Amino acid sequence: MQRTLIRLFRILPLGALYGCMALVIPFYMLFAKGFKASYGFYRKRMGYGPVKSFFHVYRNEFAFGQVVLDRFAAYAGKKFDMEVPRMDLFRELCDGEGGFIQLSSHVGSYEMVGYSLVSPKPINALVFAGETATVMQNRALLFGATNVRMVPVSEDLSHIFALNNALADGEIASLPGDRVFGSKKTVQCRFFGEPAPFPAGPFTLAAQRGAPILVVFVMKEGRRRYKVLLERLPEPEGTIRQEQVQFLADAYASVLEAVVRRYPDQWYNFYDFWE
Q1: Which residues pair with 217 in a beta bridge?
Q2: Which pLDDT value is given to residue 153?
Q3: Residues 118-169 pLDDT 10s
Q4: How far apart are CA 128 and CA 179, in angstroms?
Q5: Are 182 and 159 in contact (CB under 8 A)?
Q6: 34-69 pLDDT tens trace
Q7: Contact by Cβ (8 Å): 99, 55
Q8: Taking CA 273 as the corner, what is the angle to CA 271 and CA 275, rounded to the nearest 5 degrees?
Q9: Which of 45, 113, 118, 127 could make an SS bond with 192 (beta carbons 3.0 to 4.6 A apart)?
Q10: Exposed, middle or buried, 46 (CB in 10 Å: 0-12/13-18/19+)?
């Protein structure tokens, strides 16, 4: 199926497959397990009315389908424009000798920037190991041209050692800041007015290594256009490790909330984040 989709993108425009998907989404919403959580987010967190919330669930599902299709379009050789207004933040960190952490999230399509822009420093990107062979092979092909190495999540947590070693070598460690991978340790942060669990791992790693954190959001702005939003987190306050971890996690949660409020239909979170 995935290989067929890639072949279709070689002969069909993006808009044609977007249109087919738009017709399917209403039926998908009837049976999707994440509908209740998505609807609750727009009602309780964004404060929308019932009809508007239902409409935004549709837009959220449609936007998610678009970024998934864009990934396969990239595998088929289609190019996407990447606007990076604050590229200087990335270049400044790359010009330094030390490594740094690049935090992503399930907002927009972070993976797309790795297919398009070449990094002067190697990026060691944490990835889910359960993807299909087609996805992993095409990822490896495109990432190989942009200086990105994949670090699959492993049950023995060896991926943590790989990312730690990358930082020690002055490279970039890339991982999500809004999902728990492997270790179940979390830190509670104020998020949309309520405490929510964020993974402690990325912030603990930053505090241990004294590594700067650059937060990256890759937002879809048009059919073949993305905008890369960059935000550098402030240096942690305090000398106690746990205080530093909390400070960094709170700063990340604040930045994430601001972007989600700006792009409410591009946060692809299909469960109750506050549970």
Answers
A1: 229
A2: 85
A3: 999 999 999 887 778 888 889 989 999 999 999 988 877 788 899 999 999 9
A4: 11
A5: yes
A6: 899 999 999 999 999 999 999 999 999 999 999 999
A7: no
A8: 100
A9: 45
A10: middle
Q: What is the pLDDT of residue 158?
A: 85
Contact call for residues 217 and 109 (beta carbons, < 8 A): no
User: How far is Cα 201 from Cα 51, in angstroms, rounded to an integer?
Assistant: 38
Specify the amino acid at residue 128: F
